[in-house]
Amino acid sequence: MGKLIKNHLARLIVMTAATYHIAASLHGFFWPKFFFDFLTKNFDDAVKPVPILQTINLIFGFINLAWEWPLEFLAGTAIHRSLELRILLLPL
Question: Fewer CB under 10 Å: which end of the chain, C or N?
Answer without folding.
Answer: N
